Amino acid sequence: MTTLTSAPVAPLLQHLFEEADAASPQSSPAFANLDQSALTRLMQSKTQYRELYGQLKDQPLPVSRETGALLYMLARGIGAKHIVEFGTSFGISTLHLAAALRDNGGGRLITSEFEPSKVARAQANLVAGGVADLVEIRQGDALQTLAHDLPERIDLLLLDGAKSLYPDILALVESRLRPGAMIIADNADYCPEYLAEVRLPGGRYLSIPFADDVELSMRLG
């Protein structure tokens, strides 16, 4: 048995995913009367993300079950000890990553979330999962919270906050990504600028689309 597949994490995640399945971000006023082109423009905006995600403060906005399993597998597979996450929400992805750290013998996960109510929910879930000692939640805009006091070598980066900020967050941590570090970007299709950077032939990354909504990249040496 692993931390991910045993109590308290496994039943907690099952409950959180069931709650997320019952919620519908599309019912939020943030998405009212938006067609796909308008939604894309909103998701790509670098000025409206605070307002958008503020309206989604009661929505879990989780990674999929498959992506959660992928996060755990990658973190275990590379023996991750230092992880950075952009976009905590209710802590579903955070639980997967922290479970991997526990099974790797320990480590530190720094995650950033600017919505205070989500920070409180995530912290409670991490305590319930028995992994809060491995996680530091930084409240505020990640452009500030992730601009200082990061590990010298980062093994894994998860991007799952405001899509328009993916290139900016990557730039903040890039110098600390070790060769072979994994970068997982959820819903990266909303940020063509990010995809162009990580997919650049002969560039600093090897990158492929994974499943329907994830870009999986590796930092080259």
**Total strands:** 7
- CATH superfamily annotation: Vaccinia Virus protein VP39
> What is the CATH architecture term?
3-Layer(aba) Sandwich
CATH topology: Rossmann fold
Calculate the mean pLDDT score and round it: 90
Which sheet architecture does the biggest sheet show?
Answer: 7 strands, mixed
- Which class of secondary structure composition applies to the elements? alpha/beta
Question: How does the overall form come out from the CA principal axes?
Answer: globular
CATH structural class? Alpha Beta
User: How many domains, as an integer?
Assistant: 1
* Strands ordered across the widest β-sheet: 3-2-1-4-5-7-6
Q: Roughly what percent helix?
A: 25-40%
Low-pLDDT residue spans: none
Rg is 16 Å
Count of individual helical segments: 9
Distance between the termini: 34 Å
Strand content: 15-25%
Can you describe what's shown?
The chain is of the alpha/beta class. It contains 9 helices and 7 strands; from the N terminus they run ααααβαβαβαβαβαββ. The chain is globular, with a radius of gyration of 16 Å. The protein starts with 8 loop residues before the first helix and ends with a strand. Keywords: Methyltransferase, S-adenosyl-L-methionine, Transferase.
Task: List the keywords.
20% strand; 39% helix; 7-stranded mixed β-sheet; 7 strands; globular; Rossmann fold; 221 residues; single chain; alpha/beta
Layout: helices, strands, pairs:
Layout (H helix, E strand, L loop, with lengths): L8 H14 L13 H9 L4 H7 L9 H13 L4 E5 L5 H12 L4 E6 L2 H13 L6 E5 L2 H4 L8 E6 L6 H8 L3 E10 L5 H7 L6 E6 L3 E6 L2
Parallel strand pairs: 1-2, 1-4, 2-3, 4-5
Antiparallel strand pairs: 5-7, 6-7
Helix pairs in contact: 4-5
GO biological process, one term: methylation
Organism: Pseudomonas nicosulfuronedens
Keywords: Methyltransferase, S-adenosyl-L-methionine, Transferase
